[in-house]
Specification:
single chain; 390 residues; alpha+beta; 25 strands
Length: 390
């Protein structure tokens, strides 16, 4: 395994392999995320080991702070935990709703109120306590999401926030236009970040300022036929892999791939869907993106830091990264508040204690002025350090 920066290892294995492993499903199977549960650490489980640096890397960026780390890996020692009911957030507790005889499931992702449309009605949302083998239900307002057919995705109001619930039955569309209309993809799915691949080899990461031309081309391909082929893959194809993140669709960093030989492969709808748009259209999209894209750094899947848990105080924990530093005198201590249940439960119930090597995932910044406070922390797990040569 070639060593990578800590942030790069968290972002990739790369996007293609992570998303194929997590989201690729065949007809008739349950969604993989339903089998795994609400595992925030699912990516790390797949990655196995996280490389902190390599011989050709002088520093590692941790939340924007440059750190000089040893050539080592941090491997997570635990996979997903089925938390007791009282240790789950409300979005983790209540995950299923039945509308007009169809079941909709939540992936735990919220959508801004500005994207929420008209009220559909009030319905029971179901949750399951695996420890007590007991079902729960609460009545919640359910809404349309602007532009998206309620047959496929709705927004459910839980404790003042709106969460995306999807009806993910395997029901392949007849063509690309059907998907674009049902999910309002031109409005809900920005295609502004991509990686260029020549076969298995990455040829750079890029960012687009405007994706309207791409959608113009795709609108001309509305009749592109759906291809059902469980054995299809990028293989040695050359292609662009767009990062597919959409609050309205409830998806985060999936993929929308355009191949030089004229195909679209995407997992934005949980199942792997393939469309044949033709080489001419694919060339128009690829040429435009490459000519207009600005080369950029790899965007981490989630910002992360690792180190030794040195203190559990009233309301916060301290994590010291000295053990990872090339020079132990350069160690820094980071402060993580316990006001998020997803962090505090790891201390109260998850068996994590002082002296453990831990990995913290977060969505915000590190406030150095406030004493290296980690903002937006949402995951805490045990880890072990191993030499990169092992």
């Amino acid at each position: 395994m070639t060593p990578k920066k800590f942030s790069e290892a968290m972002s990739e294995l790369d996007n293609k392999y992570v998303n194929e492993a997590i989201n690729y499903k065949k007809k008739g199977r349950k969604p993989v995320w339903a089998e795994w549960g609400m595992a925030a650490a699912g990516f790390i489980v797949l990655a196995g080991m996280l490389a902190l640096r390599g011989d050709d890397i002088s520093s590692v960026s941790v939340g924007g702070i440059e750190r000089d780390y040893k050539d080592v890996y941090v491997a997570e020692s635990e996979s997903a935990i089925e938390w007791p009911w009282e240790y789950k957030t409300i979005a983790e507790q209540y995950t299923t709703i039945n509308l007009n005889g169809k079941e909709y499931y939540s992936g735990g992702r919220s959508v801004d109120a500005s994207s929420v449309g008209k009220l559909i009605g009030t319905f029971d949302v179901i949750g399951y306590d695996a420890y007590r083998d007991q079902s729960h239900k609460i009545a919640c307002e359910t809404y349309q999401i602007d532009g998206i057919s309620e047959e496929y995705i709705v927004a459910v109001k839980l404790d003042g926030e709106f969460y995306v619930f999807s009806h993910n039955e395997y029901a392949p569309p007849s063509n690309l236009g059907e998907v674009m209309d049902n999910y309002a993809l031109e409005q809900t799915l920005p295609l502004d970040q991509f990686t260029k691949y020549d076969g298995e080899e990455q040829k750079g990461h890029f960012r687009l300022g405007n994706d309207s031309y791409i959608w113009d081309v795709l609108n001309e391909c509305r009749d592109a036929e759906f291809i059902e082929d469980d054995n299809w893959g990028e293989g040695d194809r050359n292609y662009l892999s767009f990062i597919a993140t959409s609050d309205a669709l409830g998806i985060y960093k999936r993929v929308f791939n355009v191949t030089e030989d004229g195909y679209i492969w995407t997992n934005i709808l949980d199942y792997a869907y393939i469309f044949r748009i033709g080489q001419e259209a694919a060339d128009q999209i690829i040429s435009y993106a490459v000519e207009n894209g600005t080369e950029s750094e790899t965007e981490p899947y989630n910002a992360s830091l690792a180190g030794t848990l040195t203190e559990i105080a009233d309301g916060y924990i301290l994590v010291d990264d000295t053990v990872l530093c090339s020079d132990e005198n350069d160690g820094m201590t980071f402060k993580v508040y316990l006001n998020d249940l997803r962090i505090s439960r790891c201390i109260d119930f998850g068996g994590i204690g002082v002296g453990d090597i831990v990995v913290v995932c977060f969505t915000g910044d590190i406030d150095t002025d406030a004493g290296n406070v980690v903002e937006g922390a949402f995951s805490l797990s045990k880890g072990t350090i191993s030499d990169s040569g092992e």
